[in-house]
Each structure stands twice: as C-alpha cells, then as structure tokens.
Model the fold of this input.
Amino acid sequence: MTGIVVDGVSRSFGGVQAVRGATLRAQPGRVTGLVGPNGAGKTTLLLMLASLLAPDRGTISIGGVDPSADPLAARRMLGWMPDTLGAWPSLTARETITTTARLYRIPPSQAAARAGELLDLVDLGELADAPAKVLSRGQKQKLGLARALVHDPQVLLLDEPASGLDPEARVQLRVLLRRLAAEGRTVLISSHILSELEEVVDEAVFLVAGAVVDAAPAQTAVRTWRVRLAGATPERQNADVWQVASALSVAPDLLGADRGTVLIGFATEDAAAEALRALVNAGLAISEFTPAQSALEHAFLNLHPSDAPFGGVS
Amino acid sequence: MSLGAVWIIARLELTQRLRSIGWYILLAVFAVVLLGVTGLAFAVYSWGEFVGAGVFSIVVNMVLLLVVLVSPTLSGNAINGDRDAATLAAVQVTAASTGDIMLGKLVAAVATGGAFLIVALPFLALSLLGGGANPLVLLVSLLVLVAEIVVVAAIGVGLSGLIARPLFSVATTYLVVAALAIGTLIVFGLGGLAIRSESTTYSRPYDSMGGAICDEWETYTTEVPRFDLVWWALAANPFVVLADATPTEFSSDGYPVDLFGQIKWGVRSAQQSPLEQRYDDCDGSWSTYRTPQEVIDSTVPSWFVGLGVQVVIAGSLFAGAWARTRTPAKRLPPGTRIA
Done:
C-alpha cells in the first residue's frame, strides 16, 4: 500500500492547461489536503486520480496501480466523492447506495446491509427511503460520502466534501475522516474552507494555476496578528491603533484596523512574542492577541506574495 | 464486461422511467390509439377471408410508427443526459466497464421500445381472432420489428454519446430517423419525378368498323417519371424493410392479403421499367400487365440491403459513442465536463 503517488502529471483541455507537471504524494494513514484557488485544477487532478480522465503526461499510482493501465484495479481501491452528487433522481438514498454497491459487484444481500450501515454512519438513516432528489445540499453531500465508501476503499478522494454541511455535520465529517485515516486509509481532500481543512489534515498540498507550489516560503512570510484592547469599540479604533503603535514604536500607518481590533504583521512568532511583551509592559489591557488567519489560510494567501496584507514589524 | 453489470445499468435506467407517471400516460394513450386503429383495421379488411392477417400487419406497423416517433426522445439523451446530471461519472468510477454502460443503455432503450410492443400484444392477439394469419408472417414481422427497435435505440444512444447537449442529440436522432422514414420517400419521389424518359405505348390500330388490326402496331410516346431508377432509395426505410422482409401471402387472384404485402407490392412495382407499355386488343389485355404476385416474384428484394445500411449507421454511431465514453478519457466531447 503506497497511497497516492502523482509524478509530473499534466492535462490540458483544448488550449487550456488545467494541470501542469503536478507532483505530490499522499500517505496511507494520513489526511492530505489539496488547497488551491478556484480553477487551480483541483477537480481535474482528482478526476485523473479517480481514473476518469487520462493525464497527457506523467504517471499516477493509486495503491501501486496505474489507473490508466488498469482502471478496474484502481477503481476497486479508490472511493471518489465528486463536488456535486449526481443523484439518480427517482432512486431513494438506500437504493442509491445498493445500486452503487451492485456496480462494484457486491452481492445483493451484502449490498443491502452495507447501505444500512453507511446511511447510519453519515446520519441519513431517517431519510434512507426518501427519494434522493428531495435531499438538501448537505444531505446530498452525506449521501455522496456514503456512496464513495460503499466498497470499503483504501484510497479516498473527496472533492469539497464539507460544502453545504451544517456545523455539526462538519464536526462529524472531521471525526469520520480522522477515523478513516487511523484505519490506514489514504485520504486526499480538496476544500477551499481552509479553517475547516486545517483541523483535519496532516499535511497540505498547494495547487496554483495547475502546478503544485512549495508552501514553505509562504509559511515564513509576514503573518497578520489581531490585537484587541479590552473594551474596544469601532469608535475608539483610531486611539487604539495609535496606542499600540506608540507602545511598539512604529508608525501608526503600518498598522491596520478591523472592527475595533488592531492588525499588525509579524515576520516570525518570536517577533510577535516580543511585541506582546512590549504591549503588556506598556500597560495596555490586551484581551486578544492572535493570528488573524489560520496557518493554512496564511500560507494560501501568501502563495501570491503581492497580496500580503500588511507590512512587517521587525 | 459482465451481464450482471449490464443488467444493473439497464435496470437503473428503466427504474427512472417506471417511476414517472408520464411514462404510463404515454403507454395508455398508445393503447387507446391502438384500440381505435384495430377497430378501423377490422373494418378495412372485412372484405376478404384474411381479416386477421390484415389487422395484424396494421398493428405491427403502428408499433413501428410509435417507436420511430417516441424512441428518439427516450434514447437520444441516454449518455449526455447522465453526463449533465453528473450521474455518468458516478457509474464510470465503479467496477462497471464502458461496455457495461453502453450495452446497459442500449438494453434499456430497446426495452423502452419493446414496451410499446408489449402494450400492442393484446391487440395482436385480438387480430388473430380474425383468422387467415400465417405463423411465419407473424414471426418474421415481429423479428424485423425488434430489429428496427434495436436500430433506432442504437442511433439514439450513439448520438447521445457523441453530441454534448441532450437537446441537440435528441433532435439529431429525430433527423436521422426521419431521414430513414421520410427522407427516403422524398428522395424516391423527387428523384423519380426529376428523371423523366420517353415511354412508348404500343396498341393495335383500329379499322373503320372499330375492329382491331391484329398485324400492325400503333405507337405514341409520352414522358414518364423513372421511379425504376431510384427505387433503391426506399430500401433503408424502416417500414419498407419490415414489409419487404416479411413473407407475403396472396389471395387466390394474386393480391397480397396484408399491409406488409401491399407496401411490398408498391415498392417492387417501382422497380419495373415504364419505358414500354403494350395493350393488345386482339388479346383483349394489357400484355405488360402482371398481377402483384407476379410483380413481387419477378423483382428483387431489398430489405437486407436496407437493414444493412441501417445497421451500419446505427453501429458506427454506437461505436463512436463507445469510444467517446471510454475512461480514463483522453478526449472529451467539446463543451462537456466529465463530472
């Protein structure tokens, strides 16, 4: 079991180069996040991994199998959840699962048992006999996840699984994904809800304009922190900015403001810690001192260096 | 490829249909139409002793008409409709092969056409009460009908795999089927009328007493359409294939007893050259006249050529769609997303 190995994969549609020379690895037992802006080629890459689309160049290995050479063997190993569930309109949720199970050559009696099990797992037990077309978007996502798990796949490819889910279902999804990974499965998950992704992934692969980019430089870039003084109000904002700036001995126009809080960029965690000490020593009533973005979001936004929000304070 | 998977896919497709009320209304309307047609057919054929054969042939032709009119709507979006609904990729990613999917879709489309035949079965049984039907005729005509259902289904499924948008593939399926059913008639009609030749009619001159002079011929020429040069255009017409392939029963005076035979007679008559007509009053007859049975016996059958042309058209569209639907996909139909 070697998880997912993608090596120099490219794919174009007509004149549009959707994925260019992508190389990545997803290990068994780990949840790997696939992060990138809209149109970065995440779905195209997942379609190639799911054996539906052939790469123009490069090689893919799913659990040691090349899906171009032996799609059937790859398909028995992988579970794919598309970004939109194609639900057969007049089948019920239960029939959707049993039919998919039958297409994986699972005998009817086992298919029925599996359907019940999976629908309970994704919390659709009560809607099992409702037509799939009346399900809400979030419920369809759950059904899509259950369908992807029907043949107990070792490799999971999930395209935006959390979209449309309510907060409780997101927590359940997170727990489920961690459990699936703990069972030794390879989980590759794409999402643009980075704060969600951050809590579940072991590592992240950044895809920009079809190419995998190294996020290490981005992670060392200036990061924005949020400082809140006790009792802050929007009206008091300018005064707060001035107070923080003078305590840190920087020009106030290097700082930003957002809904009553002050935003400051620091290049390193040490610089941030140093600044916090200075603020406390200056007698300011700090009630909040925290990164303004999750680490993943920070890395993601800094993949385009020109978009860095605020200048650094050394 | 596995028969089990083909059947699961076909059943999936049919389940969608069986759970829509519209489908039952369509079949019910068809049953009502057949009831009327059967009643009229009994009246039409009441003159002879072969009532059953005649009514049977009309009902079979009605089923073919319905298949030609309705099947393209039901099969013409089999693949691109699923692609639009994002359900195709969900099947492609399973252990079902492209062959399973293509054949499953075809089986479902054929079964849909077959449903019209099943609705017609009571009427076919009813027609046999009229008597005079030959079992071989029944068998062959039903086999050809099934072959035509398969051809129309394969054209629809094929085009739905080749054309990205369901609306266009359904319309194109209609155009292809109409080219066979109506286009062939237009080519035949216009072609025959456009090509004209001098035709000579021979007859006996008459003396002053009004009697025929039996050792002389009198001639006059007219310009006639040459349907005998374009008759082949009709070969690929589904109704002509059905009629031409079905063995014909004749009444004692050499006339076909059912609609199949009557269509066959019409098409075969077109093969005859109109260039020379001879009326011999000394014999008291048109010496070039032949009974329908003589016409049919002396002309060449064309149904296998026509069916062959249809099979080539349907087969190549189906094979093209098969190649386009194969995964991992190298090329996609322009303007489509795989999922």
Observations:
- The two ends of chain A are 47 Å apart (CA to CA).
- Chain A is about 35% helix and 25% strand.
- The CA atoms of residues 227 and 262 of chain A lie 5 Å apart.
